[in-house]
Amino acid sequence: MMGTDAKALLLAAGMVLVAGCGERAQDQEAPSQDPAVAEELAVQEAAPVEDVPVTLPAEIDIWQSPQELVLSDVAVYLGSELWLNSMPVIGDDGSQPADKLHASIRLLTRDMKPLPQGVEILQVMVAQGDQQWLGQENLDVRSEGEMSLEVSLRGGPEWPAGSKADIAVTVLYQGQELIVVQRDVLISQVF
């Protein structure tokens, strides 16, 4: 059995422990008890997030781009041809060359309006399923009058004739890069 002195000592220790915990709880609650601090916290929580700048993902899905762009009130779109060159040709080593994909991709205007000055074609992406053919360097770009630009590509993948591919062209206009796409372009075969 415990003596009276031991009970008193245990009771006193418990009271000190409870009192210490109470002071600690008051210290943690103190900022929210201050009306100015509580009001500032409420304003911060209710403030809209619109002031935070939007960060775009590192890679944007180019296939979500439009099929028509408007450059200085001129609507432009792609008119493309894809084909496999199967003409009988003998290579330098005596072998028959493979059927490589060729592309003629035109940036065309609607309503017979001239293409705005300063439009540049930066790159061309041709895709079929998960395979892609990218043309960026040494692009053969020609002006076809005032209403179109054409870029030609040769030596692409050996995709089957009769299948379809999607095309995305990145253009530079007035310091801004824009992407226009054309979907389901038929791959023909030339004999």
What does this structure look like?
This is Lipoprotein. It comes from Photobacterium gaetbulicola Gung47. It is a single chain. The chain has helices at 4-33, 35-46; strands spanning 69-71, 74-85, 101-109, 120-128, 131-135, 140-143, 148-153, 164-173, 176-190. The chain is 22% helix and 38% strand. The termini are far apart. Strands 1, 2, 3, 4, 5, 6, 7, 8 and 9 form a nine-stranded mixed β-sheet that branches. The protein has two domains: 4-46; 62-190, Sandwich (Immunoglobulin-like). Residues 21-32 and 46-57 have low confidence and may be disordered. The chain is α+β, with helices and mostly antiparallel strands and 191 residues long.
Attribute tags:
191 residues; alpha+beta; Immunoglobulin-like; 2 domains; nine-stranded mixed β-sheet; 2 helices; globular
Short description:
The protein is an alpha+beta fold and 191 residues long.
Compressed to H and E, one letter per element, the order equals HHEEEEEEEEE
In the CATH scheme, the class of the largest domain would be: Mainly Beta
Q: Enumerate how many helices there are, as a single number.
A: 2
Number of strands: 9
The CATH topology of the largest domain comes to: Immunoglobulin-like
Give the overall silhouette.
Answer: globular
Mean pLDDT: 77
Q: β content, as a range?
A: 35-45%
Helix fraction by DSSP (H/I, runs of at least 4): 10-25%
Specify Rg, calculated over alpha carbons: 35 Å
User: Which regions have little confidence, pLDDT < 50, spanning 5+ residues?
Assistant: 21-32, 46-57
Largest β sheet strand count, sense and barrel closure: 9 strands, mixed
> Which CATH architecture of the largest domain is right?
Sandwich
Total of domains: 2
Organism: Photobacterium gaetbulicola Gung47
Protein name: Lipoprotein
